[in-house]
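wait is this the right file?? whatever heres the structure
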């Protein structure tokens, strides 16, 4: 299969390129490389490495590909507050345009990286794909708008699929610490404190970033009629956790670390438990490789290997918002 991956130089993308290449697929990657400084190890090279804004692609760039896996985005809730226009221009208009030119170029499958964060403050504790969405940020609104538009342009030749990913964690060669699990563990590792910004009560579905990449690969193989214009939650029912549970696992790994409630987020309104049955109905043989416990243990070992420091934690290198602010000029309007 010839696969066009956008955002292949981000956090999830490098795992995806590696899995696709080792399964024998031909891969074109497309990214503007906003987070080069966050690279901590070598990346598997795609066959074609395009350094290009997704909004500048034309149908010609997409010709000859069987599948698009669209990950490129401003993947950060606070950035959406700081500058919602950039989030809408890339995540919404950019994604819709990419889908249209993919369809025009004859690409049959379009896997869109959506997010469980569209459920926002969940109205119940078992949110499946039919649950009402409740977006709380420009980021989440952009994801819903794209799902709606792609549903409109789906037809028998064009099969968009919406992977509503749980919150990612774990080691990636393009690392980030602005995700709840990575943040709590890296903080305990470097400062000796597990700093919980909420009251610890909110629920989050969690998934290792490599398992997200595995779900993309697995779904690319499913016959179109089973997944056309379908939203699919990506994660596992048993991998919903309260933030305080995450903190307890950190403390198990680093017993000397103290749990501190900083209260800086007040009452974090993002609170949702998600149901993942649809994924396992479509892919009965699919299973996550990681539990939160095993993924955190791996990350703990990697932090030691990287010699991850307090400067790394406080600095800009591994926090997307800080790098985005620094590199706003790299993002063409
Ligand atoms: N990380 C998570 O917890 C999570 C959860 C749910 C969904 N997702 C979604 O998965 C996707 C990947 O997430 P990630 O964590 O790897 O994000 P990331 O921020 O690490 O990577 C995004 C990549 O997209 C690239 N990019 C941004 N704008 C671009 C543009 N205009 N043209 C070309 N490239 C551009 C960046 O350079 C970066 O390499 C995103 O769509 C995100 O919304 C992520």
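ok assuming it is, sequence goes like this
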């Amino acid at each position: 299969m010839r696969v066009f991956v956008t955002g292949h130089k981000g956090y999830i993308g490098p795992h995806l390129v590696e899995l696709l290449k080792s399964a024998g697929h031909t891969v074109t990657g497309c990214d503007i490389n906003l987070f080069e400084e966050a690279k901590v190890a070598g990346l598997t090279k795609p066959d074609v490495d395009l350094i290009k804004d997704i909004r500048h692609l034309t149908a010609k760039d997409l010709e000859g590909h069987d599948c698009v896996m669209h990950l490129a985005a401003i993947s950060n809730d606070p950035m959406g507050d700081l500058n919602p226009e950039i989030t809408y221009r890339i995540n919404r208009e950019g994604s819709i345009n990419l889908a249209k030119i993919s369809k025009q170029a004859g690409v049959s499958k379009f896997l869109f990286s959506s997010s469980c964060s569209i459920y926002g403050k969940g109205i119940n504790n078992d949110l499946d794909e039919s649950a009402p969405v409740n977006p709380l940020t420009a980021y989440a609104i952009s994801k819903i708008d794209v799902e709606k538009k792609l549903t409109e342009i789906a037809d028998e030749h064009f099969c968009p699929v919406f992977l509503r990913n749980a919150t990612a964690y774990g080691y990636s060669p393009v690392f980030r610490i602005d995700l709840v699990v990575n943040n709590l563990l890296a903080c305990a590792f470097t400062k000796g404190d597990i700093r919980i910004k909420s009251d610890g009560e909110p629920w989050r579905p969690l998934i290792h970033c490599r398992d997200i990449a595995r779900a993309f690969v697995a779904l690319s193989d499913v016959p179109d009629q089973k997944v056309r214009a379908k939203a699919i939650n990506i994660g596992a029912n048993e991998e919903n956790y309260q933030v305080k549970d995450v903190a307890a696992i950190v403390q198990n790994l680093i017993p000397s670390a103290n749990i501190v409630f900083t209260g800086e987020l007040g009452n974090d309104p993002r609170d949702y438990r998600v149901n993942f049955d649809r994924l396992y109905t479509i892919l009965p043989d699919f299973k996550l490789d990681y539990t939160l416990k095993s993924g955190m243990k791996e990350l703990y070992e990697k932090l030691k290997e990287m010699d991850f420091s307090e400067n790394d934690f406080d600095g800009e290198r591994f926090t997307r918002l800080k790098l985005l602010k620094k590199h706003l000029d790299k993002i063409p309007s």
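Residues 2-176+206-238+270-291 form a domain with the Rossmann fold fold (CATH 3.40.50.720). so i think its the right one actually
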